[in-house]
Amino acid sequence: xxxxxxxxxxxxxxxxxxxxxxxxxxxxxxxxxxxxxxxxxxxxxxxxxxxxxxxxxxxxxxxxxxxxxxxxxxxxxxxxxxxxxxxxxxxxxxxxxxxxxxxxxxxxxxxxxxxxxxxxxxxxxxxxxxxxxxxxxxxxxxxxxxxxxxxxxxxxxxxxxxxxxxxxxxxxxxxxxxxxxxxxxxxxxxxxxxxxxxxxxxxxxxxxxxxxxxxxxxxxxxxxxxxxxxxxxxxxxxxxxxxxxxxxxxxxxxxxxxxxxxxxxxxxxxxxxxxxxxxxxxxxxxxxxxxxxxxxxxxxxx
Length: 302
Known about the structure:
The chain is of the alpha/beta class.
C-alpha cells in the first residue's frame, strides 16, 4: 500500500532527493514550496498542514543554513529553524502525524576526541547551532512520535555545496586552500533522504518510536582530505584538477566559529530503523558523475 508523505520544501538538496526517491520507497510524496509553506509565517504553515488529509508522515526539509549570517542577525535562523518547527510539531501532534525534522552536527562544540553520540551534551558554538538546538527541543517535546535527525555536510552534484564549489575550481585554479582541522561526515542528499524515508515508514507504521538520532554517512574526514578525494574522483573525467593545500582554520577566518570535530556516531539510527548507511565516498562518486554530465564535452569548464 502506498503511503502519503508531505515534504516541506521543494527545491533544496534534500527535498529534491526525497521527491525522486519517495515512490520507489513506497511513498506518494507532495512537496510544498515557500508559497505554500512559508516558515517565516508560522500561522500560514500550520494552515497548509491542516488543509491536507490522509497524510501518514511529514518531513521538514526546510532550514536556514546561513551560518555566518546568523552571527550578525539570528532572527531568520530562529524563525525558520526553531519557531516554525515548534508550531509545526504542535500541529502534527494534534493530528497524530509523525514529524521528521532534520538538524545538524553544529549543535556540538567539536572538542570530542571521537564521534558524538545522541547522549552527548549539545553546546553550540554559534547562533546557527543554537537555533537548530532550539528546534530540536521544540519538536521532541511535542510528541513521542516525532523524530529529530542530526546530519552533516550534505552535498549532491547539482546544488550549491562544498562538493560543487570544489568542482567549479577545475580549470580555473591551480590550487585551492582548504581547512584541515575541521572534521565531519560528508553525506550525500540521497543517503539522507533514503534514511529519512525508511524512518518515516517505521514511524508511520508504529514499528519504531520517535526520538533523537544521528543520520549521516560513516567515515569522519577533514575538509582538506574531503576536497582531495573529490578531485581524485573528478580525475576520471578531467586532468585539470587543482592541488589541495591544507590550511588551519585560523588562516580562513569567518564570523561564525565552526566545531573542530563534529563527527557523528550513527549506530543508534542503523539499529533502530534497520537501515545501513553507505560510506560518503560512494556519494562523492555519484555527485561527481552527475556534475560531469553537465560538462558537455568540456570538463575543464564546468
